[in-house]
Structures are given as C-alpha cells and as structure tokens.
Amino acid sequence: METNQNQNQREDFSVLVLASDLGIDGRSLLSQSERRAREEEEEWHECVEEDFSDLEALQAFRLQGSDRSGSRILRIVGKYFPATIISGERLKRYVFHKLRTELPEGPFCILYMHSTVHSEDNNPGMSILRWVYEELPSDYKERLQVVYFLHPGLRSRLAIATLGRLFLSGSVYWKIKYVSRLQYLWDDIKKGQVEIPEFVQEHDVVLEHRPLTDYGIEPDPLRLTGVPSVDYTFGRYEDKWSAGTREYM
Fold this sequence. Notes:
alpha/beta, CATH 3.40.525.10, globular, 249 residues, five-stranded mixed sheet
C-alpha cells in the first residue's frame, strides 16, 4: 500500500525545462506602475555611473544647509547654468544624479537665484523644467516642499503667472515662493546656511537703490529682470560644450 502511494507521488511530480530563448521576461508579469518603478530605478542607476564633473565644476547646482523648516536646500544659480551648450536630456540625467547621490531621503527645497539671468544664455526654458520635473520619481515630487525664487522681477512673475500654468506642473507651480530681496529670504533660511554669490549680493544692492525696476517702471539697461524662456534646448550647441565650459568657469 505504501509503495503504491510513493509511486503515485513520483508520477504526479514533473519538471518542465525551457530553452533559454523560450524564457519569459518577468517584467511582463508586473503591473504598469511596477514596470515604471523598475525603469526609473534602472535609469537612475545609469545616471549615477555617468561622469558629470564638468557640470559640477560650474557650481550651478549645490546642496547646502537647510531652511527654517528643516528641508535640505538645493541651491540653483541661474547665471552659472550654460543653457545654450547643454541639452535638456543631459540636464535631466544630471539632476537625477544629484538627487540620487546627495539627497536620497528627507524633505528638500529649491533656492533658485534668478539674479542677472539672461534668458537666451542661462535659461533652459519652462518646457524643459516641466519635463525634468515630471520625470522625477513620485517620492521626490512629494518631498519637494517649496521653491524659493530669488530676484524674479515683474516680467518673470508675469511669465510664470501666465505661461507657467501651461508649462509647469500644478504640483510645483503652487510651491513657488517669490523672494524679491535677500532680507526677506532670511525669514525662511537662516543666514550662513547657504552661500550667496557676490554678484547676487551686488544685484540686491542695485535693486535696493532702484526698487521700481522690479515693476518695470524704471529702465532696465542691464536686463536684470529678464523673462524666462519657454524654448527647448535639446541638441543646441552640444558640440560647443568644451569651449563654453571654459568661458563660464
């Protein structure tokens, strides 16, 4: 009796061996959100491996200190960003690399310094910024608390108020906080937490003596309040990177 039961168990058990070219890709069994998360993980890993030393040397993006709410600060100096010689795709990979390696967890904020930015030279365009933001993993979007926009100027405010609704995601559009002067920035960020470039401080002094420049009433011969561009920079002047980097540095 026992022998017959063992024989039946052996007959019921079988092993199916597939050739390697007939194997099933496990990703096809994942849900759409799971596949997306895996693709993001693979893309972020590739960004970590890429060499961004040339962009690091420009100091346009730096993690420095925390605001008064305890959020880490990603300082972005617009003037340092060579928009005409870096593609939107490489900008995205660099931002991913920066966040993945230096800001893996916890809330963070962005301090964007628009001082003396020229839209044709330093601004990647709102379309690019929206695309980069939308490509971020959802947890980073949730962890972004506020975007401090220093020295926006009237035309920048109007451009963002109108075009921003079209080109910026609603979740980031409502996080923008305009800061017209450095003295107001200290209400949210304690002095000494973030390095303020000398030209930003000088620009702040100019605006103190010419306050109507912010509102477009006083002339703006130095183009201190330029309008952010909405153009794409994909592939523009990519071959000029080496020479352009030396010029900006």
